[in-house]
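To whoever picks this up:

The parser on our side crashed when reading a file containing two proteins. I've narrowed it down to the boundary between the first structure block and the second sequence. Both blocks are reproduced below exactly, byte for byte. First block:
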Amino acid sequence: MSYGFWTFTGATASYFVTHPIDSEFYPVQRLGIAFQTAVVGLSSLAAGIFGFTALGIFLLGIRVAVGISSGELDPQKQSDDETVRQSTAEKVRDILTKDPVDVVMAARRAKEKAAAAVAQK
């Protein structure tokens, strides 16, 4: 997408240079130039954002591959501890991908287990 936006930026900039605004009315000239600037500016901004995002994802993929090959990361490992706190994103993912009743019951069991552990102390 970054390359596409960058190509679009160059194409629109060259089009706007070769096809100037042919109006003698001053507000039309100014609005046309503002529109041209917005199109070229936003497309180059989008190209940069997508480019840096793609670079970051690529570098993250390399880091994960290095972590897996060195044994630091194990993609097959499942958590054995039910008391591990889930992030909000993980809770939403579980609700959307699993049976909601099972998710709620697992959360209730975890709360009861935590309450029992506090009561024992």
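<<boundary where parser fails>>
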Amino acid sequence: MKAYQDSLRLLVAMAVTAVLCSSCVSGSTLKTDEAALPAAAESTVDDQAGAVVKSVALVDMQSGCSLSFLTGAPPQYTVFKLTDPHRIIVDLPEFALAEHADLSIADNDFIAGLTSEKIQDRERDYLRLTVALRDDWVYTTSSDATSLTIDISRKMPDGGTPAKTTAAVQPAASAAVPASGRPVISSIVPHTGPDGMSIELVSAAPIGTYNAYTLKNPSRFVIDLPGARASIGTSRIAVNNAFVEQIRLGSDPRNLRVVVDIASPTLPQYQIAKQGASLMVHLQSVAVSSPAKAAEASGQPVAPEPVLPTESVALEESVPVGDEAAAAPQQFSGPNISFDFKDADIKNVLRLIADISGRNMIISEAVTGRVTLKLDNIPLDEALELILETNALGSIVTKNITRIETRERIKAINEEKLLARQSHEEVVDLEIRTFDVSYTKAQDVAQFLKQLKVLSPRGSATSFRLTNKVVVKDIPENISRIAELIREQDVPTRQVMIEARVVQSNPSYTKQLGISWGGTYTTTKDGNPINIGGGAGGNNIVNLPAPIGDGSGGGINLGYIRDNLTLNMQLSALENDDKIKIVSNPRVIGLDNQEALIKQGVALPYAVLNENGVTSTEFKDAVLELEVTPKITPQNTITLELKITKNQKSSQVGQDNAPGIDVREVETFLLVQSGVTAVIGGIYETTQTLNIKTVPFFGTLPYFGYFFRNEKQEEQLTELLVFLTVTILDAPGTIAQGPESVSG
């Protein structure tokens, strides 16, 4: 019995020992497995989530900073810059933020903050990183297998060196508070639409910086407003519709947060736009954002889009092709924007442009491809045009909708519309309408319509001279266009008055000085008289007088008489000053773009002997003539094709006494303003003559030479000036009735 009890105790002890040993082994194994599981799980996460952003590094430089994002896979990214406020947007398709990633950066003079948000698109998800800038800095991007780097620097001035900033840079949050006061949200107004809803944040002061993002579980849309506060009496606004359950408000001394609770578990697409001082948030349901996708989900075919009745001319202008587009450079407008895309889906790029511009855009399913480009500070319309042209795409703009299609599809659409229009023109009843023509000839209007080719193949235009009417027979669609064309062309022709002043001046000055002197001497020799001399009344010793007589000059006779000596001398002088001034003032009124002519003068006859020996009379014109063709420009200036002639009979004659003609003529093109007098030409000619007659040897003696000399000085001046005044006559009452009514 005792042996049995000892054996039983031994078996119990062995069993307890075995249990303890097994529990120790099991505990050790479990502990080893628990320690190994996190490593295995972590390894699995790293293997499955390589497309993540792990961390961010900020390096300050002398004139900027460098922001590097460490990634787990080579990044495919889209980078673009937005203003108001200034920020850089980085979109990383199929990327996510690592679980323990830290995106906090140190405070610096270039970056105000860094935020991230996960955006779910219809086709794929992407991570959006928003770099808030303190000013309008410039940036460059680069990437490698494990990082994406954004280098930010100050703008480069014209000198080529970075501008130094001495003033302290204010934080971005303070930029949101304008001088007029801190933004105060006074009300939040929801507007429900068919495909979503809009939420208007009403503020008295402009809202500067904002940060928007979405959150899951539950679905929420959040917008943070730094520096803003709310004056609404409640912190919760009930909406309770198909899109939004409620709107909640929360704030701290430095920030106001607006949270929109989404009714659907699917996060909506959103667009944010500034309208004055307010902020408009549009939330769009993903399920109805694409008609084609909705049709696929329901299994129903997509109804063809109705073609709006637009003219083929407008469609041709909306799709520039080849040299025609290059010949007429397009003027772009819209806000300037910077883009940096690397292998981005073109549909996402076009949707981004639509979000920024606020325009309605329909993108065809045939539009596919990827885009890699870098654009800096160009108009948004130009960026869209470049992207479409690079990818062989085009746009059709109808009212406020932009439709993006391939060029082949646009060409097919135009051809279909052209065929439909031609078929319609062949079967529609023709309409006949008569148009009265008031200010032009009916024949010219009919010819104009035919040359313009606005008539359909079945149309016709006929003019009637007696009543000055045009009868048009064509399809009803063309009749209204033709009526507008006739109304634009049948307008009163404007009139122009042209006044010319031809001033001809021929002054002359003559000065002549001469002398005649002589004498007799009588004596006796051996009782015989001897006479020597030349009397004043006969032959003079020096006879160099100036011409004297009535109206010619004057003379002074001097004499000395003794018993046997007689001396006489005559001093003569002539000074003649002639001043002749002739002013001709032709004036004519003509129609715009029509030649006008006015002529006045005399036709000089002369005899001409022809080869048969027959004498005939021909004429040469010595006339004053004004010939002008005015053209009024849209700026109310006048271009003139002008010819002014002033011919006179000359003192010279030709063979058989044929009269000579002194020709004075101006022919030119010029541009003048209405009512302004202009000098269009002039001739200035001076002739100076000095004629000296002397007695040889004696005339060159100093002082005494004047007694043996005759001098004649003559100066002739010929001056011709042409003045022109052109006046636009807008109404018959403004036509001048006489010379006194014309200024100038």
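After patching the parser it read the second block fine. Residues 2-48 form the longest helix (47 residues). The mean pLDDT is 74.
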